[in-house]
């Protein structure tokens, strides 16, 4: 197997982000020098302004935007927080450090612009992402949640203290956390030819134990439920920079479907951001039809599940196949099934039987 | 068995019914006594437009014990610089109930004429003491001290025959006359019984007699010790001396003892004095309490309202007894002149129309239909010849006749907006004050004027609800507030929310009603009856000052709001400057530089003048 060269550009990206931040600072500072109340334009993130872009196959923000001006008593505090957060991010970027959402919330207190609660601070970060059209991970601000990656992938750290150090992601059998260091690492080379994204930790561990990554020659990613944005971004990079096809393997219920859709088409929450979606990724189950096909142990759909399915029927992301057919199937049979259900057929059933068959089906 | 019938003297009556005059209990007695004395003193000064100086002292008679008992004997002393009382009236003025100068239709503070005497009476019955009165009018005119004056044509001089009795009573002797009697262009010679005045210019001789009124002679200070013979309602004079008065002191001092409860009365006494000072800013009041603490209410102006004038009764307010007395005393021979000379605002035309309405006279159709020219009157007669039935009919018609003019308020003496403002400022120093004097109005034939003020903030005490200071003819009313018409108007007829006033604000409303007859609800004279005419005036007055307060509050709220706004901006704008400068990669500046940088922005936010 030959290692694939990376097309990564972490450094370039960093420079572009810093430029954007500095530009924002110049804009605001310039307004003050001109004796104007500084303001900025924020594209509206309200649901009515979130549209589905057929071409991009993801949610995007519409034309509507609002002006946040320091002339308005209700805006001045969030405006100050916005500019502070930008300045904070600039300091993080220039010093090569990272921070968590929680950390941002506490750091503000040192500047006497306390956030009322975590929610307020998270909202300001969302605002900043929108204004700068830059994901918070690029601003070196990460959520607490972590998911893992495992597989034959060599990366090179760019974080201070580790610059230039390379590791192979098979080095730890529990997988490697997708944290700030990994997110900002250059992707150097891999022998794998695909990426399998797995919803459940138990299944992820099973894949490593069964050496399924070898059998399928795959890099494994564990999302731990809804994938964090850093993970989605990493999946996207694996797909575009290394040219690896991506398969998503989730529970056989509407929520599992949701995870697959988020990885493929993104979420409405991140409509202001690009580069979090992997259009080419394939959903490899569990399909509703698989429950019958493989006679998997199932549970009845709950009311919330049905409501979610009905909502998904209206979701433009679920317009095509296999989504619409599977939704209908779910609604018809009214059962769901977790990944762990494969345990019924022994530990290696899923690796030896289900996945090969599914791959073939999708190919 | 036979019932015993006996006559009761007025003094006896009030002795038995002392709660009528406000002396219900030991603490009310102290309060009422002090109040009556202060009011007498104020009246004595105001009638002669003398800015009052009142010195009041209450001291404990029994100084042995250090703890003030709830009921003990106090010595009360009050001194004023008022007109003073001519000595011949002193025994009656202080020792005879229902004798005095207050039984006319004039706006005065008391109306029973009991006040001071009731205090003395109460002191007498509780401590069996005598009251000491020291008084002097300061000066008397030469005319008052003379029996008469004759022009002696031969000697070209005026011979003034002196009233030796009066001179003795007033403490005037030959030496005083020699010193005091001076007239420009006139030589004076004082003998034992006469004074010779010889003008240099003979032509002045005729006018000289008229000038006797202009010559002031220092009179002595008369000192009396008086008690009241309750059964006879007669003064008992124990001591009566006259002392020299080299400094021409004028005024009255009253001193006596009474049993009472000052400790309990104290809050009311102080409240009373403060409110009195508020409505009488031209008075200087000094008070020393039983513990020797000094309270001083300073004079802030010498301007005084014009003194009230006596007035005739308005027909609307008269009863049969009053009219009968008038008829008994009148010299008029015709009903028309009787009406015009005995009643307030009744002219010939009104009188005739009224008498015709009663049916006492008939008016022949005037030759001139537009009312000009003399009417022919038939049936005119002397009022003395009216039958009792006719008098009753006349009084009844007085209440229903529509042709009388409303009473004229010129006899009233309101405090005036300026003085009211000065007084309230002096005592409360409020943040905002509005005063309003309503026009004259009348109820039942009695004219009245309502004056209203509203004060906010500053020294105005905070209390739950709106505080109310009530005054009637410049007397503070401290008791029975809940039943008073002003309180009823404030609570029930004024929507304070419209005026942006909430219950927790430090707001006080001052209502002063002056009238020739205050419509008190009860004899206790502590609250005013619910007369619709009075209520309307109070409501309109309160509304007009409350509107001004609302405007002030609106602006105050705006100013505060703006201040809060600007505070927010001045907190955040320098930070924005600092963060954006850093973000833009500008070199670091000091905090004050950033503050300076946003100053033009902050200035543009300020709309209101901060001083306002």
Oligomer: heterodimer
Q: How much helix, percentage-wise, in residues of chain B?
A: 25-40%
Distance between the termini of chain B: 83 Å
Q: How much helix, percentage-wise, in residues of chain A?
A: 40-55%
Which structural class do the helices and strands of chain A define?
alpha/beta
Gyration radius of chain A, in Å: 22 Å
- Basic shape of chain B: globular
> Spans of chain A of 5+ residues with little confidence (pLDDT < 50)?
1-7
- Strand segment count of chain B: 22
Provide keyphrases for this structure:
heterodimer; A: 363 residues; alpha/beta; six-stranded mixed β-sheet; three-stranded antiparallel β-sheet; globular; B: 612 residues; alpha+beta; eight-stranded mixed β-sheet; 34% helix; 22% strand
Descriptive overview:
The complex is a heterodimer of chains A (363) and B (612). Chain A has 13 helices and 17 strands. The radius of gyration of chain A is 22 Å and the shape is globular. Mean pLDDT of chain A is 87; it is low at 1-7. The two termini of chain A are 21 Å apart. Helices cover 43% and strands 16% of the residues of chain A. In chain A, a hairpin with a 4-residue loop joins strand 2 and strand 3. Chain A is α/β, with parallel strands linked by helices. Chain B is of the alpha+beta class and 612 residues long. Chain B has helices at 10-16, 26-46, 90-95, 115-127, 164-170, 174-180, 205-208, 262-279, 320-329, 335-342, 348-358, 388-400, 417-428, 485-493, 532-583, 591-603, and strands at 53-60, 72-80, 131-136, 139-141, 146-152, 157-162, 186-190, 194-199, 216-218, 221-229, 234-243, 251-260, 284-288, 294-297, 362-364, 376-378, 432-437, 441-443, 446-456, 467-472, 475-477, 507-515. In chain B, strands 11-10-3-12-2-1-13-14 form an eight-stranded mixed sheet. In chain B, strands 17, 18, 19, 20, 21 and 22 form a six-stranded mixed sheet that branches. In chain B, helix 11 (348-358) packs across helix 12. The radius of gyration of chain B is 32 Å and the shape is globular. Classes of the chains: A alpha/beta (363), B alpha+beta (612). At the A-B interface, helix 1 and helix 2 of A face helix 15 and helix 16 of B.
